[in-house]
Protein: Glutaredoxin
Organism: Rhizobium lusitanum
Amino acid sequence: MSGIHEFIANEVKNNDVVVFMKGTPQFPQCGFSGQVVQILDYIGVDYKGINVLADAEIRQGIKEYSNWPTIPQLYVKGEFIGGCDIVREMFQAGELQQHFQENGISVRAAS
């Protein structure tokens, strides 16, 4: 396993919720990354954002790691959930919140 895949595996294993994204949670650099951040912020989940634009190796490595061609990518408890469309659909259906809760990750109650 290359160094970059090791780094990715480590981040995914050691953080309950990780988003590999363009930009940072404070300053998303693309609309899709921004949407995922908005959804996670809305449901009040703690997560780690990893900026793939800061490192071309990570940007390429994460696509190989997940076998998924696009960024952002959401991982929960080491499991790849999906990209923006999947996250948005799961959120709208209430499945994302449920998935977090089933994995022992607290979400903010909907107001």
